[in-house]
Amino acid sequence: MRTSVNIVFINTFFLILFLVVLLEVLNNGTLVQLDLFLNMAMPQIRTSFFTSLSILIDVIFDLISMIIISILLSVFLLRRYCKKFALFFSMTILVDALVLLVLKEIIMRPRPLNGIISKTDFSFPSGHTADAVVFFGFLTYLIMHKSESRAIKGITISISSFMILLIGFSRIYLNVHWLTDVIGGFALGLFILTGSILLKEYTGKLSCAPKNSDNSLDST
Which residues contact residue 43 at a Cβ distance below 8 angstroms, ignoring those fewer than 6 apart? Predict the structure, then answer.
């Protein structure tokens, strides 16, 4: 019960954060001035290595690639654990993709004009950032519940956090997103992820015996 209350609090917090950022964007608030400042500053700190890395991140975590990766992970979960985990993950990814698509079309915020790579869709919120939060957040959630090793849990949290921050920063670095796009994507991703986890908590634990207990992390 206490866990569910904590998740509700976190879920509500990130919904409020998303709405605050959205209002800033719609009203050209103070954060938008920071958007402009960072957009002009990014070209001054670029390096060939990080530019190449950021472009690679853009390719790996674009919509098509994320669909393929998500399908592969769903198949892995289906074969390694059970249908419930695969369904939980697939549902979360699908909701994330649909919400992003709808919000971008409703808000219709233009992207920065000086992006290194060309993008034709709208800017707010950042899909790459939201996708990264949902994807790596789910992996972290899975391992936190399937492993009893504190070392594995710590490594997972560290890697997931690093990847989310790296992907978010790369969007600003490439000038394909504003800072507020990334913050909005981060908040939206966490809202969707925690909402999905909360739904799981209320509908019963997604626990089932791994198909190969010798190779599993740990059962719940």
Answer: 114, 175
